[in-house]
Every structure is written in structure tokens, then in C-alpha cells.
């Protein structure tokens, strides 16, 4: 019998420990499949920060480093500059990238650092109990916004792809989702393109993945997917925001 489905070589052989319905497992698999298909595992270095994303170091079968909260782009920059022949990616949540690490991601993108960033946006701080994040939607209830996010006092949710795409230096920026098989196929293509841009030396690339957090949203996995489709995608539209191949 032909084997049609197996674990990517770039994932270690242990079960994921993420909450049921969380999309981290899907994202990990897509990244691992891309690394396998591009045959770059021996030269890939991942950077995991603080938050749920930190567990990435447990599951990828490549060199992994854990950075301080929000500092993954700075750490990835140092690794890439010291080892330019390696392929460096950071794996960051929205609390890490869009809040504590805002300066790091903006300046890394503006410098056009030749790294790949996978940005997981689940509109909440997941690991530390579900506090409001910079990406929490208007009206969304969290532990620290029990009456819903009020834009008058808390500002509007930050759209990182739109913000970073105003910079001249980034080579590739896109936003994807995983709630449907067709979305997952597109997400893998975007992640592969982001790594390919680094392989080709074209500069900074980032893929934002809209993700669920059923535990802190207080929803079942199915309800969380439906909530994401109904509430997140209208505010965070999917698609490519910058593609230097098309510009040139």
C-alpha cells in the first residue's frame, strides 16, 4: 500500500500539546512541510519568543533558539547576519510581535533583514490567560476588557500587515487563514513563498496567520473557526499586501 500521509521530517515525533482547536499545530505542520520541500532543514534556524509560540522549539526538528519577549526579530537578525548562508525564521504571536515587540518588527522590516517571520494572530494573549492584545477586535471581551474593547479609550486593533507594507524595504507580506481547506492550501503557498524570498536573498518576508484561541475565547473549536470567519477576516482581510516580484 502506498503511504500518502506521513509526518514531515522537520517535525519531531511527539504529540502537539496545544489546546484543542488551536491552529498552532496546523501552522507548525505547514512550516515543516515547506522546509522539507525546499530541502533546507539542515540550514534552518528557528527563533521562538515568549507566549504559546515558545513551544515551537519542542516540535521542529531543526536548530531552535528562544528569544526574550518581543525580541525574536532582533535575535533572528543577529543570527542571519552572523550566518548568512542559513535560513532564519521567527515564530511569533500577536502579543509578542504587535505589542512588546512592535519596535523590533518595524525596524527589522524597515532594514529589510533577510529573515522570514510567521506571525500568529489570535486576537488575544493566549498563554497568560486571555488579556486584551493590540489585535483584539473592537467590542471583544477579554480578561482585561470585560466590557469589550472600547476604541475610545483603547484604540483600534492594529493591522500589522497594512502597517508594515507601507515601508519600502519589506519584500513580501501576506495574511492567510486556516478555517477552510482552501485557506490552508493558500497559507502553505504563502509560507513557502516567504521562505523562497529569503533563499533568493530578496529581503524581509512576513506571513500573518489568523488563528483561533478556543480556550480563551470560550468557544468550541468549531465555534472558534466560525467566529474567526465572521469577525476577524472582515477586519483583517486576507491576501498579499506586498510582493516585490510584482512591483519589479
Layout of secondary structure:
Elements: H1 24-38, E1 44-48, H2 56-59, E2 63-66, H3 72-82, E3 87-93, H4 94-100, H5 102-111, E4 116-121, H6 151-154, H7 160-164, E5 172-177, H8 181-199, E6 205-210, H9 214-217, H10 221-235, E7 239-243, H11 244-247
Parallel strand pairs: 1-2, 1-3, 3-4, 4-6, 5-6
Antiparallel strand pairs: 5-7
Helix pairs in contact: 1-8, 4-5
Question: Describe it for me?
Answer:
It contains 11 helices and 7 strands. Helix 4 packs across helix 5. Helices cover 40% and strands 16% of the residues. Strand 5, helix 8 and strand 6 form a beta-alpha-beta unit. The mean pLDDT is 95.
Shape: globular
Order of helices and strands: HEHEHEHHEHHEHEHHEH
Strand content: 15-25%
Which secondary-structure class do the elements indicate? alpha/beta
Percent range of helical residues: 25-40%
Outline the biggest β-sheet.
Answer: 7 strands, mixed
Instruction: State the distance separating the first and last CA atoms.
Output: 47 Å
Quick structural overview:
With 248 residues, this protein is of the alpha/beta class.
Structure characteristics:
248 residues; alpha/beta; 7 strands; globular
Amino acid at each position: 500500500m502506498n503511504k500518502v500521509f506521513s509526518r514531515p521530517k522537520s517535525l519531531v515525533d511527539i504529540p502537539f500539546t496545544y489546546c484543542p482547536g488551536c491552529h498552532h499545530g496546523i501552522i507548525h505542520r505547514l512550516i515543516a512541510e515547506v522546509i522539507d520541500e525546499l530541502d533546507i532543514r539542515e540550514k534552518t534556524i528557528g527563533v521562538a519568543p515568549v507566549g504559546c509560540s515558545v513551544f515551537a522549539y519542542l516540535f521542529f526538528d531543526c536548530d531552535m533558539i528562544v528569544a526574550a519577549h518581543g525580541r525574536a526579530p532582533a535575535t533572528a537578525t543577529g543570527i542571519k547576519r552572523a550566518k548568512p548562508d542559513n535560513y532564519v525564521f521567527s515564530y511569533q504571536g500577536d502579543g509578542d510581535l504587535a505589542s512588546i515587540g512592535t519596535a523590533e518588527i518595524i525596524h527589522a522590516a524597515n532594514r529589510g533583514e533577510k529573515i522570514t517571520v510567521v506571525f500568529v494572530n489570535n486576537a488575544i494573549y493566549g498563554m497568560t490567560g486571555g488579556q486584551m492584545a493590540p489585535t483584539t477586535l473592537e467590542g471583544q471581551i477579554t480578561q482585561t476588557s470585560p466590557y469589550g474593547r472600547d476604541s475610545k479609550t483603547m484604540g483600534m486593533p492594529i493591522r500589522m500587515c497594512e502597517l508594515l507594507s507601507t515601508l519600502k524595504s519589506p519584500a513580501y507580506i501576506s495574511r492567510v487563514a486556516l478555517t477552510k481547506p482552501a485557506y490552508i492550501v493558500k497559507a502553505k503557498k504563502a509560507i513557502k513563498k516567504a521562505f523562497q524570498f529569503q533563499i533568493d536573498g530578496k529581503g524581509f518576508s512576513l506571513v500573518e496567520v489568523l488563528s483561533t484561541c478556543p480556550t480563551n475565547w470560550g468557544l468550541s473549536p468549531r465555534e472558534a473557526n466560525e467566529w474567526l470567519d465572521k469577525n476577524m477576516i472582515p477586519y483583517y482581510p486576507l491576501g498579499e499586501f506586498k510582493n516585490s516580484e510584482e512591483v519589479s
